[in-house]
User: Fold this.
Amino acid sequence: MSDVRKPTTNDSRREFLKTSSVLAAGALVGGLAMPRTVHADGGDVLRVGLVGCGGRGTGAAAQALQADPNCKLVAMGDAFADRLQASRQSLQKRLGPKVDVPDERCFTGFDNYKKVLDCDLDVIVLAAPPHFRPEHLRAAVEKGVHVFAEKPVAVDAPGVRSVLESSELAKKKGLSIVSGLCWRYDYGVRETISRVLDGAIGDIVAIQENYLTGPLWHRGQDPAWSQMEYQLRNWIYFTWLSGDHNVEQHVHSLDKAQWLLGDGNPIAATGLGGRQVRTEEKYGHIFDHHAVCYEYPNGVRVHAYTRQQAGCANDTEDYVFGTKGSCQVLKNEIRKPNGEIAWKYSGPKPSMYQVEHDELFRSIREGKPINNGHYMALSTMVAIMGRMATYSGQRVTWEQAFNSTVDLSPKSYEWGDVAVPPVAMPGITREI
Assistant:
């Protein structure tokens, strides 16, 4: 293959952005496709694609379509036709002419993302199960397409390293990547963490991260389904697809801890966890509780707890303890050492789910790329590191976790049998 790709009609459909810096960023990189470009004045229609048509993907697509007055959904992909059609109908009912997805631009199967990306897109929403995110992200960046990537962005260390590489490539190509770690787009949380980082509670000495909640959905079983189909339809219960809920769900909390601590790497993690209540075979092989202590530089500890069990006390909050006070991030409150409220956010509270898309589309129109790739990858890695600690029962260092060669991918992507690993046994399992 030649190092320089010949121009196509896809490249000439839209003009380059107005600034020369973005033009330079859009130059060919390693022989890969150039980024899509649009008029900064909003005159061109932004063509949007969706990969992963479950509830979160459908919601994210709706928010994307409301983020810019001149955009359309033009292609959709999912492993399953029934999910895709339900999503298309829902979006059409809600957003009407903004959904321009005829049958010929609806794609199913494991390669659906490739076909969606072939539809001359400007923006793609990636919301398939997390296992597929590294491959889908890489393909989108190579195509020169701006990305909204749902969290988490990988389920194992090789996937994280791939995401970091794709994110660097996106920077070189002037592409935006916005992460579904949505609390970074919440106005109250932004202001609260900004004040903490400015010293409102002194030096942080410890953080407690709680994501204690009840059980999630289950899609049932059908005798006609292969094991692969069963696992994909119930993907949250299989580590190769979801990363376990310490990764799939608790990553939100761990990301806020990372943010508070400057997005650096923890030194090590030690944890405990198990499968105490949710033990039936239908729940795959993930745990129903994890508790991890992350060690950070300067002696800071992050104590992270997550549980998916019915009938228990629930709490989702970030408790931050400093030398001059404390903070509850989701309450948007900063307290004095005696417990009195020193400050509480009282500003606007738009939906963070909408804000993340608003800022993505604005970045495209203005030619000022946003790239969340670094922190979304590292926060995902912290969550994976915690799972390694709870599954193995060992103290896991950052170097061990990040450099792990354990790849959770199945041997092949086919509609047949897929082995379910045994439930991890701390002290016996050696995931790292």
Observations:
- The chain has two domains: 9-183+363-372, 187-348+377-402.
- The longest helix spans residues 373-392.
- The chain has a mean pLDDT of 92.
- The domain at 9-183+363-372 is CATH 3.40.50.720 (Rossmann fold).
